[in-house]
C-alpha cells in the first residue's frame, strides 16, 4: 500500500473565521455591487437623455445637469423636468444611490467595531497551545510580548507586534510546513471503511532533537583531547582514486585535486586502504618510523586537503547521537572524559518529549532540555548561549500525532489519477535536460556505449560552460529550452507545451514519448484532499523522487520503518546530513553510497563505493545510467533529506540530479510555468490552481479612510476576479534557486479580504513587494489544512 504521512495544521483553518468582519465585508461588497449597477444604468439613462436634450427647450440646462450627475454617480436634482418615460428609471436609480449612501455611511462604524473584535480574536488564537508553544521556539521576543498580553488582556501590544502575531496565527491555520508545534505529523493508516480521512482528536507529542550543528560543534572540539584525537577513525576519501601518475580526489570545496604519485604517497594510500576503519594512532604508528610528530603532520595535511578523513565512528543519521558519542569517548579513554556531559545532553533531549499541554513556554519540556544542555556545554569547552537563543537556534521540535486513518475505497480513484500525474510529470522533470546533456557528454568523452568512471565524468562535467544544461545556472533562465541547439531539447520543449495544452483542454496528453523520457520511478506527491460533488479530489502542491524521501524524515521519529520494495536496480541513499537537520531521516532503501565526509549506518556489504561506479552510455536510447560492475546492477542515488538538492555539495548534486529523481514540480519550479490562468486538473488531481499576476501599482493603497479603502479593495478584487480568500507571494523576475531555498519573501501569505487584519497584512505585503504579486486561489478551503505526502509508483 502507498506509504504516506500526513501533516496537519496546528489550528483549524475555520478558526480564521473569527478574524472576519462580516458586517463590514457585506456593506463593502454591497457598495461595490451598487456602484457597478449604478454605473451600468447611468450609461443607459445617459444615452436616453442625450436623445431628448436637443428638443428640451427651456429644460435643456437642467437635463444636461441631470445627465452629468448620473455620469458622475451623483444624486440628480430637479428631476421634475424629466420626460415621463425617464421619470421612473431615474427614481429607481436615485433609490439605489440612496441605498449605497446608507451603506457607505454605516460602513466606518461597523468596520471599526468589527476590527477591534478581530484583533481581540488574534489574542485568543495566539493563545492556542500549538501557536503559543511554537512561538516560544520561533520568536522568543514575540513570545514574551504574547505572554504579557495573555497575563493582562487590557494591555494590547503595539501595531507591529499585532501584525507579527497575525502572521503566525495565519500561518499555523493555513499552512502545513512542519515547524515545532505549528504543524503535527502523523503516519497514515489505510482502512476499508469510514471517512475519507480522520484526524485524531488527541494532543500530539512534542519531541526534541538537537540541530546537527550542535553535534558538529561538539565533534570539532573533542579532538582537542589527545586521547580522543588518537581514537578517531581514519580512512581514505571514498572518492579518491589513482589515475596514471596522480592520485585524484575532491577537495573540501568539491573541486577535483591531484597529488603526484610518489613511493611514499603510494604506500600511504595503500596503508589507508588496508587500515580502513582503523584509529588515527594505529595508522600514525605504522607511518611514523622514528618520528611520530612527522606522521601526525602528514596525516593532518592530508586531512585538510581532503584525501583523508578522520571522524568519530558515529553515523550521521544516528537517532541518539550524543549517547553514541558518549559511548565512543568512554571506550576511547580510561580517564574521566566528556562522556558524562554528552550523555546528559542526550538524556535532556530524551526527557523533553511530552504531550502538548497549554503551550506555556515556562513549563514546556523543551525548557528542561535547554537547562540540561546549558549545564553540559562548559564541560565540553563550549560557550554557553542565552536560553532563548539556544532554544531557537539549537533545538528542533516536532509535533507527532496518532495516525490519520484514510478510507481506501474513497481514495482509490484519486490515487489512480495521481499515478497518471506521476507519469505526466516525467516530461516536465527539470533535470531531464541535464541528463540528456550528460549522456551526450559521456558519449563525446568516451564514445557510444562506453562505461566511464563516475569520478572522471564528474571532473569533466565541472568544466561545463554557462548556458549548458550541465551548468548550475541553466534553470535560472525563464525559458531555458528556448533556442536550444540540441534537437532533443527543442522537442522536449514542444512536448511540454503540448502536454500542458492538453490538460487545459480537459484531456491528458496522448503523445507517445521518446525513449529518452524515462519513467521517474517512485514519486512522493504532496497533496491536499477535499470533498467535491464527484467525490474525493486532490490538489498537488509538489512532487519529488520517492524511495522514502518526504516520509523517512518523520518515520525516523515515529519509529515506523517500512521494508524497502524489491526492485530491478539498487536505490542507494546519501548517508550524510550535509550540515542541516532537514536531512535527518530513517534508512529507507537498504543501500548507501559511501560518500566523503559521511559516516553511514548500513553494513559494509550494503555500501557502494563511489570509485567502483561507472557512467554507462546507452547508444540506442541516448541516455546514461549509473552502473556498479561488481553487482551487475544499475544504481539510483537517493537524497533522502528534505533540503533542496541545489544546496548539496557538487558531487552529491550530480549524483541525484544526473541519475536519480529530484523535484518534478515545486512552487518555485512549477511543471506549468505561467503568470495567470484558470485551474488545471488531471482527472481528480488539480495540478495548477487558478492564478493571477498583479501589478503592485494597480493595487489600491490605504489612506486615511479605512472604509473607503475596503470598498476600493473589494472593487479591485471584483474587477480582477481574485477570490476573497487566496494566497499571495512576491514574484521576482529572476532569483537563484539557491536563494529561493531561504527567501522568506517567496513564501505565500494567506489573505482574506473579508478580515480587516488580513487586509492590513496584504497592504504591508504590497508596500514591500519589489515587483509583481502572484495570487493563487485558496484551494482547498475547508475546515482544516491537511497535506499528505504519498509515495506513488512504489511497485
Structural write-up:
This is Lantibiotic dehydratase. Keywords: Signal. The protein has 795 residues and is of the alpha+beta class. 41% of the residues lie in helices and 19% in strands. The chain is built from 24 helices and 30 strands. The strands form 6 sheets. Strands 1, 2, 3, 4, 11, 12, 13, 15, 16, 23, 24, 25 and 30 form a 13-stranded mixed β-sheet that branches. The chain has a 5-stranded mixed β-sheet with strand order 14-20-21-22-17. A hairpin with a 2-residue loop joins strand 6 and strand 7. Helix 1 packs antiparallel against helix 3, helix 4 packs across helix 5 and helix 13 runs antiparallel to helix 14. The longest helix has 43 residues.
Oligomer: single chain
The counted number of beta strands is 30
What percent strand?
Answer: 15-25%
Which secondary-structure class do the elements indicate? Answer: alpha+beta
Q: Roughly how many Å apart are the termini? A: 9 Å
Unreliable spans are none
State the share of residues found in helices, binned by percent: 40-55%
**Describe the biggest sheet?**
13 strands, mixed
Mean pLDDT: 90
Estimated radius of gyration: 32 Å
Helix segment tally: 24
User: Shape from CA axes?
Assistant: globular
Amino acid at each position: 500500500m502507498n506509504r504516506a504521512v500526513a501533516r496537519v495544521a496546528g489550528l483549524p483553518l475555520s478558526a480564521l473565521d473569527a478574524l472576519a468582519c462580516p458586517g463590514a465585508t457585506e456593506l463593502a461588497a454591497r457598495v461595490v455591487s451598487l456602484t457597478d449597477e449604478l454605473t451600468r444604468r447611468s450609461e443607459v439613462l445617459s444615452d436616453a437623455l442625450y436623445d431628448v436634450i436637443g428638443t428640451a427647450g427651456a429644460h435643456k440646462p437642467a437635463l444636461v445637469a441631470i445627465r452629468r450627475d448620473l455620469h458622475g454617480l451623483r444624486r440628480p436634482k430637479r428631476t421634475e423636468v424629466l420626460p415621463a418615460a425617464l421619470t421612473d428609471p431615474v427614481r429607481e436609480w436615485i433609490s439605489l444611490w440612496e441605498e449605497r449612501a446608507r451603506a457607505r455611511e454605516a460602513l466606518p462604524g461597523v468596520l471599526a467595531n468589527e476590527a477591534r473584535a478581530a484583533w481581540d480574536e488574534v489574542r485568543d488564537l495566539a493563545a492556542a497551545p500549538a501557536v503559543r508553544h511554537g512561538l516560544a521556539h520561533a520568536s522568543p521576543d514575540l513570545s514574551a510580548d504574547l505572554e504579557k498580553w495573555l497575563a493582562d488582556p487590557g494591555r494590547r501590544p503595539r501595531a507591529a507586534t499585532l501584525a507579527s502575531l497575525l502572521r503566525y496565527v495565519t500561518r499555523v491555520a493555513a499552512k502545513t510546513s512542519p515547524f515545532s508545534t505549528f504543524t503535527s505529523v502523523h503516519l497514515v493508516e489505510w482502512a476499508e471503511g469510514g471517512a475519507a480521512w480522520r484526524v485524531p482528536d488527541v494532543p500530539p507529542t512534542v519531541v526534541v532533537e538537537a540541530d546537527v550543528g550542535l553535534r558538529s560543534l561538539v565533534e570539532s572540539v573533542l579532538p582537542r583531547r589527545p586521547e580522543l584525537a588518537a581514537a578517531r577513525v581514519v580512512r581514505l576519501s571514498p572518492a579518491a582514486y589513482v589515475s596514471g601518475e596522480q592520485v585524484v580526489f575532491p577537495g573540501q570545496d568539491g573541486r577535483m585535486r591531484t597529488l603526484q604519485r610518489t613511493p611514499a604517497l603510494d604506500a600511504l594510500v595503500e596503508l589507508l586502504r588496508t587500515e580502513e576503519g582503523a584509529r588515527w594512532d594505529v595508522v600514525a604508528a605504522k607511518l611514523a618510523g622514528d618520528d611520530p610528530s612527522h606522521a601526525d603532520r602528514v596525516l593532518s595535511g592530508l586531512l585538510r586537503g581532503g584525501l583523508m578523513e578522520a571522524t568519530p565512528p558515529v553515523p550521521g543519521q544516528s537517532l541518539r547521537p550524543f549517547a553514541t558519542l558518549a559511548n565512543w569517548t568512554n571506550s576511547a579513554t580510561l580517564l574521566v572524559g566528556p562522556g558524562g556531559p554528552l550523555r546528559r545532553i542526550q538524556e535532556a533531549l530524551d526527557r523533553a518529549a511530552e504531550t502538548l499541554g497549554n503551550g506555556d513556554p515556562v513549563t514546556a519540556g523543551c525548557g528542561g532540555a535547554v537547562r540540561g544542555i546549558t549545564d553540559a556545554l562548559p564541560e565540553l569547552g563550549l560557550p554557553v548561549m542565552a536560553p532563548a537563543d539556544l532554544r531557537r537556534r539549537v533545538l528542533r521540535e516536532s509535533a507527532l500525532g496518532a495516525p490519520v486513518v484514510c478510507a481506501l475505497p474513497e481514495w482509490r480513484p484519486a490515487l489512480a489519477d495521481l499515478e497518471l500525474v506521476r507519469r505526466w510529470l516525467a516530461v516536465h522533470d527539470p533535470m531531464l535536460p541535464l541528463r540528456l546533456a550528460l549522456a551526450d557528454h559521456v558519449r563525446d568523452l568516451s564514445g557510444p556505449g562506453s562505461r566511464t568512471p563516475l569520478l572522471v565524468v564528474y571532473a569533466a562535467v565541472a568544466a561545463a560552460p554557462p548556458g549548458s544544461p550541465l551548468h548550475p545556472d541553466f534553470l535560472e533562465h525563464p525559458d531555458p529550452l528556448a533556442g536550444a541547439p540540441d534537437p532533443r531539447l527543442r522537442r522536449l520543449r514542444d512536448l511540454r507545451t503540448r502536454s500542458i495544452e492538453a490538460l487545459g483542454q480537459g484531456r491528458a496528453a496522448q503523445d507517445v514519448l521518446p525513449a529518452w523520457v524515462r519513467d521517474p520511478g517512485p514519486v512522493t506527491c504532496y497533496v491536499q484532499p477535499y470533498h467535491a460533488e464527484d467525490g474525493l479530489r486532490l490538489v498537488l502542491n509538489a512532487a519529488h523522487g520517492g524511495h522514502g524521501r518526504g516520509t523517512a524524515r518523520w518515520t525516523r521519529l515515529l519509529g515506523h520503518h517500512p521494508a524497502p520494495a524489491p526492485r530491478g536496480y539498487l536505490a542507494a541513499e546519501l548517508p550524510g546530513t550535509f550540515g542541516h537537520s532537514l536531512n535527518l531521516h530513517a534508512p529507507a532503501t537498504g543501500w548507501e553510497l559511501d560518500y566523503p565526509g559521511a559516516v553511514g549506518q548500513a553494513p559494509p556489504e550494503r555500501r557502494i563505493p563511489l570509485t567502483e561506479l561507472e557512467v554507462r552510455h546507452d547508444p540506442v536510447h541516448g541516455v546514461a545510467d549509473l552502473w556498479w560492475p561488481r553487482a551487475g546492477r544499475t544504481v539510483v542515488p537517493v537524497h533522502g533529506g528534505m533540503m533542496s538538492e541545489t544546496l548539496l555539495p557538487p558531487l552529491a548534486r550530480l549524483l541525484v540530479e544526473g541519475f536519480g529523481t529530484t523535484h518534478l514540480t515545486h512552487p518555485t519550479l512549477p511543471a506549468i510555468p505561467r503568470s495567470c490562468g484558470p485551474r488545471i486538473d488531471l482527472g481528480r488531481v488539480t495540478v495548477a490552481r487558478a492564478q493571477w499576476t498583479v501589478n503592485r501599482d494597480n493595487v489600491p493603497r490605504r489612506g486615511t479612510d479605512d472604509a473607503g479603502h475596503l470598498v476600493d479593495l473589494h472593487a479591485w478584487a471584483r474587477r480582477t476576479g481574485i477570490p476573497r480568500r487566496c494566497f499571495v507571494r512576491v514574484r521576482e523576475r529572476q532569483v537563484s534557486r539557491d536563494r529561493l531555498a531561504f527567501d522568506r519573501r517567496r513564501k505565500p501569505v494567506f489573505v482574506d479580504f473579508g478580515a480587516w487584519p488580513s487586509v492590513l497584512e496584504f497592504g504591508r505585503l504590497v508596500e514591500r513587494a519589489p515587483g509583481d504579486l502572484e495570487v493563487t486561489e485558496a484551494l482547498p478551503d475547508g475546515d482544516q489544512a491537511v497535506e499528505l505526502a504519498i509515495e506513488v509508483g512504489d511497485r
